[in-house]
Structure prediction request, 200 residues.
Amino acid sequence: MVGVKSIRYYFWTISDWAYLGHRRLVEIANRHGATIDYRPVDLPAIYAKTGGILLGQRAQQRQDYRFAELRRWKVRLNDPINIEPKFSPVAHELSSRLLIAAKLGGFPVSEFTFDVMKAAWVEERDISDPNTLREIAARHVPEVEQLFDSAASSEVLAEYQRYTDDAPQDGVFGSPFYIFKGEPFWGQDRLDFLDEALAR
Prediction:
């Protein structure tokens, strides 16, 4: 449900930085009485429109710096994360569509979203594998196969496409991206600024 204080949360389900920011985003939103509009997106499609470059295509110096930053934030946040997970990168569409199906079905998706990303970044699991996703989904919805059927529907596909199309129009070019009252915040390292904006 979208409230008066609503954060549009654009994220890629296989995003390391979205994983690191997720718990804090939820805590900040709860503290300010804000809702979160979860919007899983096809980040490569957004990159194609906004000049982004997939990790494996970036210069080695940029890839090395990402590792350095992940190590720093792992210590800063005291969060478990595998810097080089066993399954990365993997296909992201099924996990995204399952989350959208759960959202459209009226189920809470905060913990579901976190468990998907935690599986990838902590538990060394393949979140492109339907069996992995079935096990995760079973914790959050009563009818897993019904959720899978919904995830394959044209309605969910259209919503997934809408989020991906809307993202660049909202100023989004990466993951995670938070939008509050038209103001964009890119990355989990900008959550303090989002917190301040909500306080105002």
User: Anything to note?
Assistant: The chain has a mean pLDDT of 95. Residues 60-77 form the longest helix (18 residues).
